[in-house]
Design a protein that fits this description.
Distance between the termini of chain A: 37 Å
Structural class of chain A: mainly alpha
CATH topology of the largest domain in chain A: Arc Repressor Mutant, subunit A
Oligomer: homodimer
Number of helices of chain A: 7
Number of domains of chain A: 2
Largest interface: A-B, 45 and 45 residues
Number of strands of chain A: 2
Strand content of chain A: 5-15%
CATH class of the largest domain in chain A: Mainly Alpha
Order of helices and strands of chain A: HHHEEHHHH
CATH superfamily of the largest domain in chain A: Winged helix-like DNA-binding domain superfamily/Winged helix DNA-binding domain
CATH architecture of the largest domain in chain A: Orthogonal Bundle
Chain lengths: 145, 145
DNA sequence: GGAACTGATACTATATTAATATCAGTTAAA
DNA sequence: TTTAACTGATATTAATATAGTATCAGTTCC
């Protein structure tokens, strides 16, 4: 069971770079180099982030992408859902049919509880909070004691 | 993000059938029909359960498979790990390298906490507990009030 | 006008998951 | 003692998801 796909991981890292450069347009090339993300893959990913309205773009020379939300308002949960779909038990519950297999339905109830916990936790982790952690690690800011 | 693959889901259901028939050999054909699991797929899956030492088999006519452990000792966590591998954040942390991408490492710390919660919860859910729930639902047993 | 950009889209590669097929060997029972 | 009902082992295919690449048109700045 893999929690984060590379795409989600890349998205988080791209947004961290953009959050660190709020108010400025940053080119895909720059992000690609800084975060070591394959350029064309990143391009596609950024277009998805635009569709998710987390960033905006500017075409042409000196163009690029810019974060368009408060980093504290962008949660890892949103990103996981945007790129990997909602946390789900198995397909059966998606179809909302009366399960042919009751076992899954029994399990489902249990797992729904777990899902709620996981979602609540991922909701707490934001680009803003990650960036602050990063800055502490990199020594740009002294951690509050 | 899908929590259970079909294989794990099938394994749980097969074990529920076997737990309800403790002490008896049940054929793959019977399980397949009862739980609506593709026969050949189930065959392969049962062999994995044998390797995991959760069931034993008997060849020949009147043969089949039989559960070989106390259903309360078989957790969904074990099955997820057996069929899908351990819950992990992303590949990077597996390799135990010093992450090129620090963001993931920051995230990692947070997600490790979430993983512990999820694992603890899946550990509590056993074939035995699921079976008891099923029996209550199906009215074989009165729920304790 | 040309270099530095994004938009859009099509394509390929790889891995994982799901399902199917085949044949040899074992056992119970008619 | 033959045959039907089984598992063991393994090979193959199909479907889907993930990851990565390529191309060309259009925009903007200088």
């Amino acid at each position: 069971m893999k929690v984060l796909t590379k795409k989600t991981d890349y998205a988080i890292r791209a947004l961290l770079t953009l959050a660190a450069s709020r108010g400025r347009y940053v080119s895909a090339k720059t992000i690609s180099e800084e975060q070591d993300i394959p350029y064309q893959f990143l391009r596609g990913l950024l277009q998805e982030l635009i569709r998710l309205e987390l960033i905006v773009s500017k075409e042409g020379a000196q163009g690029g992408v810019m974060i368009s939300r408060d980093p504290d308002e962008i949660s890892v949960k949103q990103l996981i859902e945007g790129f990997q779909g909602k946390v789900q038990v198995s397909e059966c519950m998606f179809r909302k049919q009366i399960c042919a297999n009751r076992a899954n339905c029994v399990l489902r109830h249990e797992i729904m509880r777990i899902e709620q916990v996981v979602n609540a936790e991922f909701d707490k982790i934001t680009i803003g909070s990650l960036l602050r952690n990063l800055e502490v690690i990199q020594g740009h800011v002294q951690p509050a004691v």
